[in-house]
Amino acid sequence: MAYSAKVMDHFANPRNVGEMKDYSGMGEVGNPKCGDIMRMYIKVEGNVITDVSFMTFGCGAAIATSSMATEMIKGKSIDDALKLTNKAVMEALDGLPPVKIHCSVLAEQAIKAAVADYYRRQGIDPTPIVGEIAECEECACEV
């Protein structure tokens, strides 16, 4: 399985990694089939994600997609962050092997889960804004 130079860079040198203490929203998603668990933290000021970090337990692709996703939403409005797709994350990483596509899906879901938590903390039902956050069923990893 070959990874792009960008995937390897984000795996070896992840950006925005670590627990955030003063977060506005936190989302955790995972896939028990392969063991990838992502926790995404966002800090929101004036509808803009001013800071973002993650903690991921999983394979190199899971770490790389988490890192890239945080880079792609930092400084963006919540609306723009919610538009980020797993396909955009994969393209930014110059692709992923087919068996690792689920990692990019988890990164997209982690962002949505963090935004949903942010809205809940504001007393707002996130479902009409964020939608349902379904479990990733694309995992093709060997257990």
From TrEMBL:
NIF system FeS cluster assembly NifU N-terminal domain segment(s): 2-122
The gene name on file is: nifU
Q: What is the lineage of its organism?
A: Bacteria, Bacillati, Bacillota, Clostridia, Eubacteriales
Which Pfam family is one of this chain's hits? NifU_N
* Taxonomic superkingdom: Bacteria
Which organism encodes this protein? Candidatus Acutalibacter pullistercoris
Q: What is this protein called?
A: Fe-S cluster assembly scaffold protein NifU
> What InterPro entries does the record tag this protein with?
NIF_FeS_clus_asmbl_NifU-like (IPR017787), NIF_FeS_clus_asmbl_NifU_N (IPR002871)
> Which NCBIfam families has this protein been placed in?
NifU_clost (TIGR03419)
Q: Name one GO biological process term.
A: iron-sulfur cluster assembly
Gene Ontology molecular function: any one? iron-sulfur cluster binding
